[in-house]
Amino acid sequence: KFNYTNQTKSFIKAIANWNVKRYPFKLLTCRLLQSCHWSISQYRSMLLKLLALCLFTFLIYVPIAEARIRHYKWEVKYEYKSPDCYKKLVITINGKSPGPTILAQEGDTVIVEVTNKLLLENLAIHWHGIRQIETPWSDGTEGVTQCPVVPGDTFKYEFKVDRAGTYLYHAHYGMQRESGLYGSIRVSVPDNFTEPFAYDYDRSIILTDWYHKSTYEQATGLSSNPFVWVGEPQSLLIQGKGRFNCSGASLTADTCNTSNPECSPYAITVIPGKTYRLRVASLTALSALSFQLEGHNMTVVEADGHYVEPFVVKNLFIYSGETYSVLIKADQDPSRNYWMTTNVVSRPPNTTQGLGFLNYYPNHPRRSPPTVPPTGPIWNDAAPRLAQSRAIKAHHDFIVTPPTASDRAIVFLNTQNRINGYVQWSVNNVSFTLPHTPYLIDLKKKLHHVFSQTPPPEGYDFVNYDIYNVSKNPNATTSNAIYRLGFNTTVDIILQNANTLNVNNSETHPWHLHGHDFWVLGYGDGKFDMNKDPKNYNLVNPIMKNTVPLHPYGWTAIRFKADNPGAWLFHCHIEAHFYLGMGVVFEEGIDKVGELPSSVMGCGETKGFDLVWLLQYRIIMLKLLALYFFTTLIHVPITEAKIREYNWEVKYEYKSPDCFRKQVITINGLSPGPTILAQQGDTVIVNVKNKLITESFAIHWHGIRQRGTPWSDGTAWVTQCPIGPGDKVTYEFKADRPGTYAYHAHYGMQRTAGLYGSIQVSLPDGVEEPFAYDFDQSILLNDWYHQSTSGQATGLTSIPYMWVGEPQSLLIQGKGKFNCSSVTLPTNICNTTNPECSPYVITVIPGKTYRLRIASLTALSALSFQIEGHKMTVVEADGYNVEPFEVDKLYIYSGETYSVIVKADQDPSRNYWATTNVISRHPKTPPGLAIFNYEPNEPQQSPPTVPPAGPVWNDTTDQFAQSQALKARRGYIHTPPPTSDRTLVFLTTQNTINGYTRWAVNNVSLDTPDTPFLIALKYNLPNVMDQTPPPDTYDSLNYDINNVAKNKNATSSTAIYRLKFNTTVDVIMQNANTMKMSHSETHPWHLHGHDFWVLGNGIGKFDLKEDTKKFNLVNPVMKNTVPVFPFGWTALRFQADNPGVWAFHCHLEPHFYLGMGVAFEAGVEKVGKLPTFIMGCGQSRGLLN
């Protein structure tokens, strides 16, 4: 404490005005003593106090002046890129891959705000080599330190860069790293600090291998039985650029083009005579590499952020996760350029070397060197690689001496194994699996049941295990148990390599430790001897690293201090190996970790911290069930109301529904998924486990009104956060109405990937339908694309706009037939003899009557459906009985369901065609075919006739007539209110917003917020969505629906329509011309949570005065999905009597994805407390703690 007296003021003033040249220190002292009237002792005391004050202010101000905040804002999304000339989906950061280099100085704070725009996939970013001291939650390791960042969310990573050096960042979720989500971190030394080497310029270079197959396809193959290995990469990239031989495959120029500037060789421009520090890093998915510069030696000076005793190399061997700094002198002939090359080592070199240019200024950067690129080292000669590893020692001026002994030694045997027939990688015969709730949260919140509490093994059967041969017992087990380390103890890890499942094969494994650096004590060949080998440890000048190679049939010994509180991953840095279980987790000092931020939560049991509410919710549900059973006693015997429970596992699998092999989302191995069978009044419980690797999902129960359970509607961003990979949630709802319904994915465009199925709700026992039949069968109609949903969605959101095109096939109950001969495809990709694509068969008994429950879940197409030689009687639509009418062809639009009655009354000696055709669009897709099989004919016996032709695709007369023929059945009429309380007129248009193509309603394109509407409204989070009400109508007087709009621009909004509870609402859907002349499309609109009366439809512009007089108020059919015809209108009426938030949207996937929808809110204050399973994204994360 400083006594700020007048004497002190005089003292400080004198010091401030002190001119050193005029007044030496001795004179200054005399003047101070005279002016302050101090004694010598007082002067000394005051001087000491002033020095203390100076030191204090120095501590405050100097770091602030030097330690800066480095703030980055990133948008992560998929884009089409051609890094090696082959066009594919790449994950970019602000449009770049590799992403922006993070530049910081030792001591700085780095803040990276990451917005996930990946459509469907979650993400997490690891800051490779950053120790995250006091910020373990920012390590960016999904499943260990955080829940993943879901699409739409913005996650803030904040950490200190406490050490100068060369580091990296990359995706750490599934196998996303190899999709392009990575970049460099360059941390410079503090000002006035001199590094032990000199250079003029500094450059970062990332080396990667590159696959054309998506990470999803690779991961699906790895987790399949039989095992499908990822194979060798197609290219090697130097700073994101490589060159694939496009002529070596049957590829079109728009898919692979070597003249594309995106794949021009990467060039490092140098000034002759200057010295360059090249920070070389590897983030390969599989390959160990060599790196060389033609005609130049490289001096290694840094490894993983630590200075090394310099040594010279011609080839730098580098393994995935390692970073090095090398010095090069631009001292060669400056009249030419030189090759920069990287080659695969330690694996058969089936991948062409990566090439770049060392460009001597002022030569042109694209000028090829006059020589042939130098060849790389012999790929399987491990001697020079091991020699380099051993040559890396700490710089003599920067030695950090390790503890002389360890408190604990753990030996990790690395093996390839089998578990239940699946290939896995293991440590000590245990294949690592991540829990669905991250370890850091589990440990901090003491959720001990989340992962196994049985300690994993600390060694293996050293005496009997033969590391040189395939294991006699290759079977292993899985576990998510972790190693608990004593805080501040010293730990030795011995990594022991062994033979794989292939004879005479041992692989190189680069192991990376999060949150720490370790001393590399030694390497060796053969089996590690615990008694002998530790005597040869280097305890004098070992290098410290965070990533270290384990060579074939060898061992590597490391030592580290468990002095960083948290949960830290230690794993093989090869993507496929870690994905298959080659890793462990260490916990240390978890009690010293501060309060976890809510941003790391949102998955697994972090959604369920509100345990009191969870118990209350269960009690409430039991009471509601009891109440429901009581109230139904009058109408339905209590024995009739059952609980129908289903357990589903949702994952990607390779399937060939139309003979073309692609990734399909399956439920319990099936697509379409299992049919849900229930009876009116039953409670349906569906326990869903997400096994989609990195994608989230949500399932909508199409046609189920969700009365009392709006959170189970399954609409991502409207009623729930999507379900993250590894999560298990329970949808629970009442089947309150008999009829034909469906379920499907309702997140992004996942429905087109195969995640759908049928719901069949029958009447209670003793209640008869108004029509008779002998058998009941569900049939789903779909269109089918070979392009992935991510590929389609990325094209839709690109500039230039890339339309999804017409589907390749039409499927009947998940089966179709693509013409494999129309394109050049190998038989393992497209094979018409594959039984998966044999025609679907509807088997009938002659003379019997069948109820066919037909549903359409197409992504784009309106369809017709017919059965050769048979009439169909329409009896039900969207769960309501209709006045029967007969058709030859049933017109059906996406989201609609119908029941038709068919009599098997034709010649029973043959089979008949069941066909579906595209209508309302150019029919570029061939018809879908099935067989209507009369017993006892062979089911696959083709009919003797040509399949019947479909209707004229653009003749809307019959389509319109069918819509007008739909009326409520006599005896089952639900009379609508005679008038409405509110009328909304929705003009549906195609527009542009900032150059992007969109669909809009009243010139507003719907955006969904990152926090679901239901949660935002229930918890009064007004900043989540726009509060300006969207327009109730459009400029009907001046808008010309028959021509392209004069002003095609629109706006986007997250605003919703707030409806008064229990009011009656009319919605007029008005179609118009698209952005193409004389073109208007059919839009099937679906309303969640309600059924509506279809009051009428017409062609042309709706007239609010005249057309309302023609409304059918006598016997209108009730539906949940209705088509709006080209240049036409459809009028519907509903009652806003179901509390919640409900989507109303075009059911065509690209249209809703591009904004063609709205959301209605009614009576949200009447909704009970929301269950936590719907939370975990956006601002709902903050509701979990």
TrEMBL record:
Superkingdom, natural source: Eukaryota
Major subcellular site: secreted
Pfam families attached to this UniProt entry: Cu-oxidase, Cu-oxidase_2, Cu-oxidase_3
Cofactor: Cu cation
Alphabetic keyword roster: Copper, Disulfide bond, Glycoprotein, Membrane, Metal-binding, Oxidoreductase, Repeat, Secreted, Transmembrane, Transmembrane helix
Transmembrane segments: 46-64
Annotated catalysed reactions: 4 L-ascorbate + O2 = 4 monodehydro-L-ascorbate radical + 2 H2O
InterPro entries with a match to the protein in the record: Cu-oxidase-like_N, Cu-oxidase_2nd, Cu-oxidase_C, Cu-oxidase_fam, Cu_oxidase_Cu_BS, Cupredoxin, CuRO_3_AAO, L-ascorbate_oxidase_pln
Entries under PROSITE patterns matching the protein: MULTICOPPER_OXIDASE2
Cellular component, GO annotation: extracellular region
E.C. number: 1.10.3.3
Domain Plastocyanin-like, residue spans: 76-189, 204-362, 471-589, 650-762, 778-936, 1030-1161
Subcellular location as annotated: Secreted
Residues annotated as signal peptide: none
MF terms in GO: copper ion binding; L-ascorbate oxidase activity
Quaternary structure, from the entry: Dimer.
Family listed: Belongs to the multicopper oxidase family.
Protein name per the record: L-ascorbate oxidase
Organism this protein belongs to: Quercus suber (Cork oak)
Gene: ASO_5
